[in-house]
Design the sequence.
């Protein structure tokens, strides 16, 4: 699956806005998406480092309009934990010289509120 097909839309509620301060972002995802696929899609789309993914399947609810009854669609929700403090990596190059790697990940998802 393509990353754009896995992440359908962000879920913006009062509870999810409070969790954003801790690095937890909530998304509606494709029903057949797995946790590694979701993590790779978020890393690719938003350039962040994903630490953990929790998923849950939400069953559709019974709805009624007048005398007609129906059911809303089932969907899948993913809560993605990102690394809010990516550290610079120091490693040794050839010849024993230490080098610091630059920070290549974002510490938050800025596009989340604009979606």
Sequence:
């Amino acid at each position: 699956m393509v990353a754009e097909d896995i992440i359908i839309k962000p879920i913006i509620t009062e509870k999810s806005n409070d969790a954003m301060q801790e690095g937890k972002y909530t998304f509606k995802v494709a029903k057949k998406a797995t946790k590694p696929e979701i993590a790779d899609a978020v890393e690719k789309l938003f350039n962040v480092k994903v630490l953990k993914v929790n998923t849950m399947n939400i069953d559709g609810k019974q709805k009624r309009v007048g005398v007609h009854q129906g059911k809303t669609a089932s969907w899948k929700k993913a809560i993605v934990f990102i690394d809010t403090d990516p550290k610079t990596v120091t490693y040794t190059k050839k010849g024993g010289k230490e080098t610091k790697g630059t920070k290549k990940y974002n510490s938050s998802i800025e596009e989340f509120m604009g979606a």
Observations:
- DSSP finds three helices and eight strands in the chain.
